[in-house]
Amino acid sequence: MGKVVFLYRSLAYRNAAADMLRKARKLPRGVERSAARRYARALRDLAKTEAWLEGRVADESRPMPRLKVVASR
User: Fold this and answer.
1) Residue 11 phi/psi, 5° resolution?
2) What is the CA radius of gyration of the chain?
3) Phi/psi class of residue 67: alpha, beta or left (left: φ > 0; alpha: ψ in -120 to 50)?
4) Would you put residue 68 in left (φ > 0), alpha (ψ -120 to 50) or beta?
5) In degrees rounded to 5, what are phi and psi of residue 70?
6) Residue 25: which of 36, 39, 14 has the closest Cα?
7) CA angle at residue 50 from 54 to 41, to 5 degrees?
8) How much is the pLDDT for 59?
9) Whole-angstrom Cα distance, residue 34 to residue 23?
10) Which among 2, 34, 39, 58 is most buried, taking Cβ atoms within 10 Å?
11) How far is CA 61 from the centre of its chain?
């Protein structure tokens, strides 16, 4: 069930980004168009991040390697 919810959410982000880009193309060049394009880019990046996080949940069962902390001078 979790995979289905993730798929719908990811598709919703991608569709919203595509819709926003279509709206931005219709606007004249300027501040509003730039803002719409930034918003669309953010939605697209959110969909990618969401996909990455969903993939990382399956790997959570593996023990994480310990990182050494090195003091800088």
Assistant:
1) -65, -35
2) 19
3) beta
4) beta
5) -110, 125
6) 36
7) 160
8) 43
9) 11
10) 39
11) 24
Amino acid symbol at 18 = A
pLDDT per residue as tens digits for the range 46-61: 888 876 666 654 444 4
Q: pLDDT tens digit string along 4-53?
A: 666 677 788 889 999 999 999 999 999 999 999 999 999 888 888 876 66
Burial of 70 by CB count in 10 Å (0-12 exposed, 13-18 middle, 19+ buried)?
exposed
Residue 47: half-sphere exposure toward Cβ, Cα within 13 Å: 17
pTM over 0.70: no
- Residue 17: CA atoms inside 13 Å, Cβ hemisphere, count? 16
Please name the residue that has the structure tokens 């939605």: 43
Tokens of 45: 């990046």
